[in-house]
Amino acid sequence: MNKLNIKITKPDDWHVHLRDDSMLEAVTNCSTRINQRCIVMPNLDIPITTQKQCLEYKEKIKSIANQKNFIPLVPCYLTENLNLIEFKDALENEIFVGAKLYPSNATTNSSFGVKKIENIFSSLEVLEEVNKPLLIHGEKVSEGVDIFDREKKFIDDELVLIRKKFPNLKIVLEHVSSKYGADFVNHNDNIAATITPQHLMLTKEDVFYNESLNPHHFCMPVVKEEKDLISLRSYASSGNKKFFIGTDSAPHHVDNKIPKLSCKPGIFSAPCSIELYTSIFDEEDALENLEDFCSINGPKFYDYPINNNTIELIKEEWIVPEFTIYKDVKIKNFFGGKKLNWKVK
Ligand code: DOR
Ligand code: ZN
User: Fold this and answer.
1) Where are the beta strands (DSSP E) in 104-260?
2) Ligand 1: which of 14, 17, 46 to mutate, judged by most atoms within 8 Å of the beta carbon?
3) Is 248 part of the annotated catalytic residue set?
4) How far does the centroid of ligand 1 lie from the alpha carbon of residue 205, in Å?
5) Which of 18, 91, 182, 194 is the most buried (most CB within 10 A)?
6) Dist. CA 212 → ligand 2 center (Å)
7) Which ligand is nearest to the CA of 198?
């Protein structure tokens, strides 16, 4: 392959946050510029739990998207008291792409999430029956569980149970952040994982250092140790079909990223996400597997057609803008102000 110029099937982003109102207007086209489809997460201030909310949200996104054939996909936000008849109907009619499990208080806008896993077993039964995927924020938040062990604890206490009880349920372990989690995905059936750019680039020292915190590197699950980063890089760049793109690009206004006052977890990578992944694969000497990770493994797992157009990347230096600014919105861009050596043509 010519390493100065690569063409790949148009990617999708299987995990992104676009929010609402002026934030939605500010960030949507950072994702539509390169992706044909995005799974847009339902953790708005009022979570998306009904068909009506979902249809309205998708229409709103489409009306903002520059690319008119862009397809937003939205999962249902699982709560302990969903209307299961409506839920099933919305899944069968492809209104919801699947359902997202947020453990209660694990991350941004998760207070309506699940407190006790057994309380959503009836929803999981529906998902398994209609063959739609369960997307999981895989962290157990509980007293005495260290923030760095939340993923492992969720897997041991909850995911193993879900896997055993619903063997035919398709599962995506979102933003897998540890070697332990990636190995679990690799060794179990009917489960895949998305991997974010930050979990391929940062370790805990990039977030917590000298008794201080870099709020722009703070996300959930938190980035971990070097051994985790190495393992995730190896799974992503190997072409393994169980791993695919999911940026978890998660914008917050800069005023909500101030340590001690209010520091919401989330890293906004959409302005340069495909360029970051390409640089990582280049560093790993694995550019030949970039297309599988970005454009093939995801649709195959989700049973969607592979896109039939392409994008081109060229090896050329550029500086990522520091901020995304629009109306009342100001967001710090991940890698903002830094030099990247791959660019979308
Ligand atoms: O860092 C994160 N931010 N992780 C999540 O799971 C949610 C996201 C957000 O919505 O801000
Ligand atoms: Zn997310």
Assistant:
1) 134-136, 171-173, 191-195, 208-209, 212-213, 243-245, 257-258
2) 17
3) yes
4) 20
5) 18
6) 24
7) 1
Burial class (CB in 10 A: 0-12, 13-18, 19+), 63: exposed
* Annotated active-site residue in 13, 248, 282, 292: 248
pLDDT 10s per residue in the chain (345 long)? 557 999 999 999 999 999 999 999 999 999 999 999 999 999 999 999 999 999 999 999 999 999 989 999 999 999 999 999 999 999 999 999 999 999 999 999 999 999 999 999 999 999 999 999 999 999 999 999 999 999 999 999 999 999 999 999 999 999 999 999 999 999 999 999 999 999 999 999 999 987 788 999 999 999 999 999 999 999 999 999 999 999 999 999 999 999 877 799 999 999 999 999 999 999 999 999 999 999 999 999 999 999 999 999 999 999 999 999 999 999 999 999 999 999 999
Q: Is the CB of 250 under 6 A from ligand 1?
A: yes
- Indicate whether this model's pTM tops 0.85: yes
Ligand 1 pocket residue status of 199, Cβ below 6 Å: no
Rg (CA), the chain: 19
User: Helix, strand or coil for residue 338?
Assistant: coil
Q: Please name the residue ranges forming H helices in the chain.
A: 21-32, 51-64, 84-92, 121-130, 150-154, 160-165, 179-187, 197-201, 226-237, 273-283, 290-291, 297-302
Question: Whole-angstrom Cα distance, residue 11 to residue 316?
Answer: 20
* Bond prior to 221 in cis (omega within 30° of 0): yes
